[in-house]
Amino acid sequence: MTRSPLPVCGPEGPLRAAPSTQGPSPVRAVLFDFGGTLFQMGAYADRIRTALQRPVGEREMDELLDGLEKGLVDPDVIEAQRGRDVSSRAHRHAFTTWYASVRELAPHADALYAQLQAPEHWVPYADTASTLARLTDEGIALGVVSDVGWDLRPTFAHHGLDRYFSSWVHSYAYGTEKPDPALFGHACRELGVTPAGTLMVGDHPAKDGGAAGAGLRAYVLPAGAVPGEPRGLDAVLRLAGAGSALQAHLG
């Protein structure tokens, strides 16, 4: 019987005594999610106005946004989200189905999806660049592990951030989604680090937090981020052992 690298636990704790250690392994690598972690999409109102190519008043915009909100509970839209990130085709279908659930936006579903893939529509958080620079200065390897339907490297390059990363794991390229251990394991192998020495950072409790099931440490950022504002990534620096880093880097 092949044992998991993680201890088997009963209701009260591990079934077998763990070997004595001097504490957790130092963090040698940090894996980052993409949207909601390092970047955020621009405002939907701005995207809709661009796609419609005409002025849209506040009242009409509210109705369109209400329509998108209602679409999130539409059975057809919900069904389209299943396996959304396992292929480029599934990803496109999921999003265009949602956009098209609003009658006025249906003719522009493809244009809205094209925006989703366009680097200029993504905004890095205010502390993204400084955090990545500090981690790199500390000799910590960085990778991206994202549930996504297209290659993210052009977006990072557009904002001058691709140079910090040595591994890119896009779910659509592997036909699976987080928290599948295969995605985290692949990134660790590319970076030449063990799961025990790796920290996964994201904004989804089940998907990104699920990295713990693959033997990594995980940090889930709180909800409520604003495009272009600080994301609270200074916590990642502390978890990675980069000292008071962000203040030192900015100061």
TrEMBL record:
Keyword set, alphabetical order: Hydrolase
Molecular-function GO terms, alphabetical: hydrolase activity
Region annotation Disordered: where it falls in the sequence: 1-23
Transmembrane segments: none
PANTHER family linked: HALOACID DEHALOGENASE-LIKE HYDROLASE (HAD) SUPERFAMILY PROTEIN, PTHR46649
Listed name of the protein: HAD-IA family hydrolase
Organism: Streptomyces tauricus
